[in-house]
Amino acid sequence: MEFNLDTLVRENIKKMTPYSSARHEFSGAATVFLDANENAFGSPLPVNYNRYPDPLQWPLKEKISQIKGVPPSNIFLGNGSDEAIDLLFRIFCEPGQDNVIIFPPTYGMYEVCAEINNVAVKKVPLTRDYQLDLEATEAAVDANTKLIFVCSPNNPTGNSIERGAIEVLLNNFAGLVVIDEAYINYARQKTFITELTEYPNLVILQTLSKAWGLAGLRLGMAFAGQPVIDYMNQVKYPYNINTATQQLALEALSNISSVNNWTKTTVVQKDNLSEALLALPVTEKVYPSDANFILVKMTDARRIYEYLAGRGIIVRDRSKVMLCDDCLRITIGTPEENNQLLEALKKYMA
Ligand code: PMP
Q1: For a disulfide at 78, which of 3, 220, 267, 290, Cβ 3.0-4.6 Å?
Q2: Cα-flanking dihedrals φ and ψ of residue 248, to 5°?
């Protein structure tokens, strides 16, 4: 299957003239900026935000490039990885005509973005052990299938998708294979970033919202071949990443060691919590997890969810989700929080 980006991109996107921001046209050294209708005096804050941010976030991309080993020109930064997901629909999927494939149970935003963009979603359920059904996937692909979303480690099941199966998609699908690696820092399986040079149809999504502890800043990353990244930059809002986020993310990315320590602690806590939950009669199964949460099958998930919520402990009720009957998704907290959860469950049984 030949990959041809030109046939994948919507005609209107190919033809459009991108917005040219005030600072686009000039790249030399200047000291007087009277080009962007900003307030020249400053901001009513200790730090000045009166100037527009860098539209392409070059210093931040340089830093991410060093950490990830991917050239800056292969990196897109978005307002969360959710922005990247939405952009892929808008660039590649013709409303009312094209379709995408997802593997439920999986992250909800792929379908939400599809609905917003009036793009059909073909659902190929994961197998009983939460892996890809390649035969059913092959049968689902048609000439209008533009994107396949693989979430690995998968939310809400927590497991990684087998690498070999993802490679089959990459080798055979003529559209884009989007691998959402939001939870990759917790996984035993390694990232697909190293395969970027092999596969022009590969897009990898990562985020600072999980292991990096920066969900409130909203910074998502997409890694792909430069032609795909160029389209994403062309379609995004000109100033999609604000100055505060750019500066703070740059600072945070220098503190890798604390992030690595939290990740290790989370993995240890996940094992401890899984073991402690399994010892409780309300727990039927804890699914193996490569993420910072566990999917737990319980005797009566909905009632337990409500009981916990009544005590101020919020978990995610997934009991109505396909292949997740009677399951709660529980994020790994601090040791104290995990203990509070366990104590509340013991009281529930008493
Ligand atoms: N992908 C997956 C699998 C997620 O679980 C989430 C957040 N729950 C996201 C993407 C979105 O993350 P962000 O905060 O970067 O938009």
Answers
A1: 220
A2: -70, -35
For the Cβ of 215 lying below 6 angstroms from any atom of ligand 1, the answer is: yes
> Distance, CA 208 to ligand 1 centroid (Å)?
9
CATH number of the domain located at residue range(s) 5-15+53-254 in this protein: 3.40.640.10
pLDDT for res 40:
97
Please, what sign has the CA dihedral across residues 331, 335, 340, 342?
Answer: positive
> Tell me, what amino acid is at 202?
L
Dist. CA 157 → ligand 1 center (Å): 14
**pLDDT on residue 24:** 73
pLDDT of residue 1: 63
Do 257-349 and 5-15+53-254 fall under one CATH topology?
A: no
Is 180's C-beta closer than 6 angstroms to any atom of ligand 1?
yes
Q: Among 155, 208, 241, name the best residue to mutate to test ligand 1's pocket (greatest count of ligand atoms within 8 A of Cβ).
A: 155
**Ligand 1 within 6 A of CB of 292:** no
- 105 Ramachandran zone, left/alpha/beta (phi>0; psi -120 to 50): beta
pLDDT given for residue 2 in this prediction: 78
> For residue 6, what pLDDT is reported?
94
CB 182 less than 6 A from any atom of ligand 1:
yes
Q: Where are the domains of the chain?
A: 5-15+53-254, 257-349
pTM of the model: 0.97
Say whether domain 257-349 belongs to CATH 3.90.1150.10: yes
Those residues of the chain that have pLDDT short of 50 are: none
- Cα 107 to averaged position of ligand 1 atoms, centre (Å): 8
